[in-house]
Amino acid sequence: MSDNTESKLALDPSEVLVFEGPFNRSVSRKLVIRNTSQTQRMAFKMKTTTPKLFYVRPNIGVLAPEQKVSVDIYMQPILQEQIQKRHKFLLMAAEVTGDITDMQEFWKMQNPNETWDTKIKCELVPSKQDDFRQAGGSAALSTDNKDGEVHFDAQEVSEPMAKLLKQVSMLEDEHVVLTDQIESLRDQAIGRTFFYMATIIVIILAAVAGAYYGKTHL
């Protein structure tokens, strides 16, 4: 179809999802999807090239006219062999004209020529604990899979698991802060110890020099 998703749905962020490290823990990001139509209901569905790495809540749904939804995207701790892969999302949209009893069945029955899709880039921004940066995806919009990529349905995480992931992320943030504070205190302690030792050495040298001077000149 000549139209595209962005003419039906507004995205925030609109082009790229930025995940900030460290990546040895779960990282989350929000994607806000808004139905721009004043009269038409729109169905949406999230797909990804790496379903085992990303969990999405919700990953599928229907938006009333001008309604919006905040989608939570959780990225699992990344493995070394996954660093070089291009991780991408595909957001699909379709008009809804009647009642829907089964969302999965609704999408199975959709004519590809009557659906819209857009690719969303993923960008990994390293923290000081990370030494890599991986960007993938393309801002180009398409209604087919011209580049040969395979997109899978994004797995939806349950509400209890989503809360648990958020709590774990908060605890890991606190751990990073406490670690930085401990390192700072340790550096300060080392600095004070060095100062005390230097002072003692100077005093000893001064005493030795004084004794030598007194012995040779008095």
UniProtKB/TrEMBL annotation:
GO molecular function: FFAT motif binding
Coiled coil regions, renumbered to chain: 161-188
TM helices/strands, residue ranges: 194-213
Membrane association type: Single-pass type IV membrane protein
Domain MSP: 8-125
Localisation per UniProt entry: Membrane
Annotated GO CC locations: endoplasmic reticulum membrane; plasma membrane
Gene Ontology biological process terms, A to Z: endoplasmic reticulum membrane organization; endoplasmic reticulum-plasma membrane tethering; sperm individualization
Key words, A-Z: Coiled coil, Membrane, Transmembrane, Transmembrane helix
Family named by the database record: Belongs to the VAMP-associated protein (VAP) (TC 9.B.17) family.
Protein's recorded name: GM25016
Lineage: Eukaryota, Metazoa, Ecdysozoa, Arthropoda, Hexapoda
